[in-house]
Amino acid sequence: MRPPIIVVVTCGLALTATTAVASGPGSPDATKHLQPNAPRTITVSEADTPPVVRAGLLQSTLILLPDQEKVANVFAGDTVDWVFDGGHVASRFISIKPKVAGSTTDVHIVSDHGNEYTLQLREVSGDDDPHFDSKIFIAPGDKAAKDRLAELPVFVPAAELDKVKQEAAAAKAAQAATLKAEQTKEEAYRSQYPGSLHFDYTWDKSKGKELGLQAIWRDDRFTYLRGQFQETPALYEVKDKKPSLINFDFSNGLYTVPKELDNGYLAIGKQKVEFHRTQEAR
Prior knowledge:
Keywords: Signal. InterPro entries: Conjugal_tfr_TrbG/VirB9/CagX (IPR010258), VirB9/CagX/TrbG_C_sf (IPR038161). This is Conjugal transfer protein. Residues 1-22 form the signal peptide. It is a single chain. Helices cover 17% and strands 37% of the residues. It is an alpha+beta fold and 282 residues long. Among the domains are: 35-149, Sandwich (Immunoglobulin-like); 201-277, Sandwich (Immunoglobulin-like). A five-stranded mixed beta sheet has the order 3-12-5-8-7. The chain is rod-shaped and about 115 Å long. The two termini are 71 Å apart.
């Protein structure tokens, strides 16, 4: 698949005059008998003569590109006696309308996939056949053109490009704002965290030294015990004079207990160090 080549294309139809075909005078009375044909599909091939589209005086004929494509640009031979409208948003639709009876012109359509479609337009209000084309579906007749429908667009209309840029800028600004808020929150937490630490535990320092216990403290959510231990002691919480093993994380000599402990002890075999929160701190 070819990589997309971003080319800025203006919204609506950019009309460039080529060889205009002379138009004759028309009469509004000629529109009285005009009747729309049923929608039909025309196949466009570079090797064939451009197909003819029958247009009715002051009547709109809608031309539709394949579903996969949008109009990137339009070149018309006569932009005085014919009106071309692709809307203000890039789409697969083009509306054409002749203003002069008996006029003819050519129109060359370039799609966002790089396909090119050339049509001959003819106003038919003076014909014996009163029918004009109300809706035309275009189908590519060349294999290369059909293959391009499955590929990424090679042209991007300016409006869509601006929209993508705006969305990207908005997403970047939102991400920056979120990151700034998180950084502010983290900085505030760090600045306030030391004030939330409490070293209000007591224990027998000689027994603690023998076991390897060095410090015990807490914040508003956790209790921490640090030491240098030959082997990891079991940690117990004591409530109502009854000990129970509790859950904790241990890493590099640091116990992290997901709660505030009032009383407890560390034990290895017969070695035991009890610790208690001071009464003033409770």
